[in-house]
UniProtKB/TrEMBL annotation:
Residues 90-134 form the Transglycosylase SLT domain. It comes from the Bacteria. InterPro entries: Lysozyme-like_dom_sf (IPR023346), MltB-like (IPR043426), SLT_2 (IPR031304). It holds the Pfam family SLT_2. Transmembrane segments: none annotated. Gene3D superfamilies: 1.10.530.10. This is Lytic murein transglycosylase.
Length: 174
């Protein structure tokens, strides 16, 4: 089940993205699929979304140091977002790399701050990232291209698709 606070963020990000770039045709279910796979909607490791949509405690991924099948990505932000000044780590409920956040980070809740640990901001940034380069997420090719840009693993994309499909089916079942 998707927490109400996360669902609110995914729906708002869909609406904002459709207004900004209607050709993308992004659905909240794709954002929810990514949120499920990346952090169980902000609940990974006992974390939770507070009323303001901030994940507490923060969700910080493993160091991307080239070990154990992970890519090696040297630090890009001086440790500002992830606390690691040697390697980058994915951060927040939508698990953004600092360099990707620097490009797509967004203020989804209108408080004047783009925070990858805040679900409205992270969902809005994920929507922009998925829709980049004029992608039409409602087409099969556009959907796969967008999700594989988010994470270059076919297994990852299949997990996102399965979750998104479950959420879509749940909203259409009488």
């Amino acid at each position: 089940m998707i927490p109400a606070r996360a669902l609110q963020a995914y729906a708002a990000a869909e609406l904002a993205q459709r207004a900004a770039g209607p050709g993308c045709r992004l659905s909240w279910t794709t954002l929810a699929g990514i949120g499920r796979v990346e952090s169980d909607h902000g609940r990974f490791g006992g974390a939770a979304l507070d009323a303001d949509g901030v994940v507490r405690p923060r969700i910080i991924g493993v160091p991307l140091d080239g070990s154990d099948g992970v890519a090696e990505i040297r630090d890009t932000d001086g440790g500002r977002l992830d606390g690691d000044s040697v390697y980058d780590r994915a951060v927040g409920p939508m698990q953004f790399l600092p360099a990707t956040w620097a490009r797509y980070g967004a203020d989804g809740n209108g408080d004047g701050i783009a925070d990858p640990h805040q679900i409205d901001d992270a969902a809005r940034a994920a929507a922009a990232y998925l829709c980049a380069e004029g992608r039409d997420i409602a087409s099969g090719e556009g959907w796969w291209d967008g999700v594989l840009t988010y994470n270059r693993s076919v297994n990852y994309a299949r997990l996102v698709w399965a979750a998104a499909d479950r959420y879509a089916a749940a909203t259409t079942t009488p």
